[in-house]
Amino acid sequence: MVDAADKAEPPTAYFCDMGYASYNNFAHIIENSQYFLIRCNDKRAEGILGYPLDSVREIDCHVDHILSRSQSKKKMSRPKQTDRYRHVSKSVPMDYLDSNRTEYDISLRVIRFEIKKDCFENIITNLPDLEFDLEDFKDLYHLRWSEENAFRDIKHPLCLKTLHSKKYDYIAQEV
Questions:
Q1: In the sheet where 13-16 sits, what is the strand order?
Q2: Any idea which of 34-38, 49-53, 127-131 has the lowest mean pLDDT?
Q3: Distance from chain centroid for Cα 71
Q4: Rg of the chain on CA atoms, in Å
Q5: Is pLDDT above 60 for 74?
Q6: For residue 108, what are the contacts with CB-CB under 8 A and spacing of at least 6?
Q7: pLDDT, tens digit, for every residue of 2-49?
Q8: β pairing state of 35-40 and 119-125
Q9: In angstroms, rounded to a whole number, what is the distance separating the alpha carbons of residues 90 and 88?
Q10: What is the number of other CB atoms lying within 10 angstroms of the CB of residue 98?
């Protein structure tokens, strides 16, 4: 969907749920000059940040990583930046790492805020901090609930909690 977006149109901002938080998805959106807000769990956010979120209540920070398939620090082309390297396993899709391109620079923004007592939301984004502050993300997070409720209102009355097929034609027939 991202790769098929019309580049002549104004940039699109993709709001995605937790299952879409991956370096490959981030890279596709960035390479297509689009924006994203993707929810993620604590474990994924900690992996991106490089430290635990146990005592962190709010955060709005940038992380710059160098993605590579190699784990060998000897092969890394920027030895003074070893803390920025993140290994991407060969079993994990990463379309921008191949035999021609062994490293991929990615810049992400990690947002964390409390949505209710001791319940936190983590968002990975590439939206600029000059235009979007932490309060804006709280508002954007609440906007998505109307979409969630709309999906719930469609799924439950039609008994579409689970679909029995993966092919579009069969899904359309089932609906």
A1: 13-16, 35-40, 119-125, 103-116, 59-68, 85-87
A2: 127-131
A3: 23
A4: 19
A5: no
A6: 26, 48, 62, 63, 64, 65, 124, 125, 126
A7: 888 877 788 888 888 888 999 999 999 999 999 999 999 999 999 999
A8: antiparallel
A9: 7
A10: 10
Closest to 115 in 3D by CA, of 134, 94, 88, 95: 134
Q: So where are the chain's domains?
A: 13-128
The set of residues, in sequence order, having a beta carbon less than 8 Å from that of 82 and lying 6+ positions away, is: 73, 76
Tokens 């609440």, residue?
Answer: 142
What is the per-residue pLDDT for 92? 94
* Cα 167 off chain centre by: 25
pLDDT at residue 112, rounded to an integer? 94
Using DSSP, state whether 65 is helix, strand or coil. Answer: strand
* Residue 105 pLDDT > 80: yes
**Residue 31 one-letter amino acid:** E
**By the 8 A CB rule, do 64 and 26 touch?**
no
Specify the pTM.
0.80
Count Cβ atoms below 10 Å from residue 35 Cβ, excluding itself: 16
Joined together, the tokens standing for residue 130 give: 């000059």
